[in-house]
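Supplementary Note 3. Input sequence used for the single-chain structure prediction.
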Amino acid sequence: MGVEIRVEGLTKAFGSQTIWQDVSLTIPSGEISVLLGPSGTGKSVFLKSLVGLLKPNRGHIWIGDRDLPYLSEGQLYETRKLFGVLFQDGALFGSMNLFDNIAFPLREHTKKSESEIKRIVMEKMDLVGLVGAEGKLPGEISGGMKKRAGLARALVLDPEILLIDEPDSGLDPVRTSFLNQVFVDLNAQINATFLIVTHDINTARTLPDNIGLLFRRELVMFGPREMLLSSEEPVVRQFLNASKIGPIGMSEEKDISELEAEANMGLEAGKLPPIPPQQMPSNGLIRPTQHAPGAWCAAHGVTPPPGSFIDELGRNWVEEWPRYVASMSAVAGQHAGPPPGPGPQGPGPQAGPPMGGPQGGRPQPPGARY
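The predicted structure, written as discrete structure tokens, is reproduced below.
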């Protein structure tokens, strides 16, 4: 299971320039979280702070019971072994082939034999669909393959926390969708804690369990996906609508006169779009930490935007979900004995058939890719 990350009052500045201040949030263990924000708001700086590459000016980063900014070098070195990091460009060594790039953390941090290293590397390459490319150099492969190779390298030490910096950077929408499916499938398999920095609105709307938004040197909001996708907070509404109307300007935030002019003209960021069903693992099984569609809205008395939770086949997943859970519990029982009892988000199987497409006539999951 992944590790919870608890951030308290975190502030980072470079000289006189404050990047963000008094940031507090809890990234739940084993869940997928996404961090959004306009360019230049310090999202990558936040990731680097979480892994100890940058030291904050003040505040706390609790990784389990360890406060990262106050660890000794030896303690920090050991704590970093909990992390896997996928950098924006993959950060591969140009002179090494993909096999050696992915094997590097194992050779650096473990005393495993070369035969054991080969087994682990090939397992991770198979996981990200790179078997057969192990002899290629980074300069000989596409941007999407570099991302997947960087992801395989981030996975070789079986991390409990995965930090992923703009995985969609330089990728077309189709490859971004495929990569998102890899993240969902990985989370279902290894139960690691994921934090993904992205600008891709479709990723933010369909992939995570939680969303955060940085703006004006502070964390505007962080919480369950449905909370942000139904929020009337102006900056959240503007960002998720990709609208020119709202507090975000071309450089940073708009000044008061610009906002007043927009208000006087009756301009609005637009209605919130429907909340889509959340993307599911390829095999259709429910992730252990996954929330039922519409559960947050119902618990907090929030009416979601019209048309929410309806998939491309016209199915309403608020209504479909109980039947789907029952169906998947039956599938899990056939493959792994009696189904488990209710978890923190309600009943759901923890084991089931191998990865693959629809099986046995059971309903297709929302957001799955076949």
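The radius of gyration is 21 Å. The longest helix spans residues 317-336.
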